[in-house]
Design a protein that fits this description.
265 residues, mainly alpha, 12 helices, 3 strands, DUF2268
Amino acid sequence: MAVLPTDEWLMNVKKPPMELCEKLVPYFKEKEATSREIFLHLTRHGMCRSANGLQQVVQEMKTKRIWEKATEIYKVLIKKWNGPDIPIFIFPADWRNGRLQREFNGKGGLSYRDKLFLFLLPHHTKKEMEALIIHEYNHVCRLRRMAKKEEDYTLLDAIVLEGLSENAVRKYVGPSYNAKWTNYYSAKQLAEFWQKYILPYQSIHVTHPLYDRLLYGLNFYPKMLGYAVGYDLVNRCLQKRDVTFAKLMSLTSEQIAKLADRDVS
């Protein structure tokens, strides 16, 4: 598989982006998801919601060779990591999403074991795209190694997943391309967050009402709470002697937390 021609899809459907999700139904066979369910899920993670102004954005993305650049990055990465060959879907990001703009410079992504979605805009540079693709493709590689089913993933699994991916960005692209939330808090604050917020709820699942609040730092929780703690966990591990990124990818989330000297009992 490769980067699919979603630019052509977007230019040819009458009612994008909702209508194009019908083309994605075959890629969600296991979940038996409808096009509307897929649309709601993708927009929740950063895909554009409205057709207003969409064709102009797509045309600008084509002019900036977004699809070609993503293909070049992916070909290099799949050889470097010897990773799985999966389909990649690129759609415009939701330029009206304030949190996406603040925390991720307007870009986003969504990863599965067998596919990957990228949400981009014309202003994103090739280096920014590389950071996003490395982050999301690292998710794919990690998910492939986990024995759990998606519905069994815990909050701890999620924050470690994000921590591994953003440390991969630091390693392969450079710290200047890390997300802003990697520098929000001090080491002392992150240790406190672990004890106060993550440790008591480490085993909750995505259906739990606190899951998203803790992962993203919603409501009155510190913003991007789970992401920041996960980045710190992995970074602490990598500072230890004889600990490599490849080794961490093969460890469980609990093993990584222990290696980072965090209590998991």
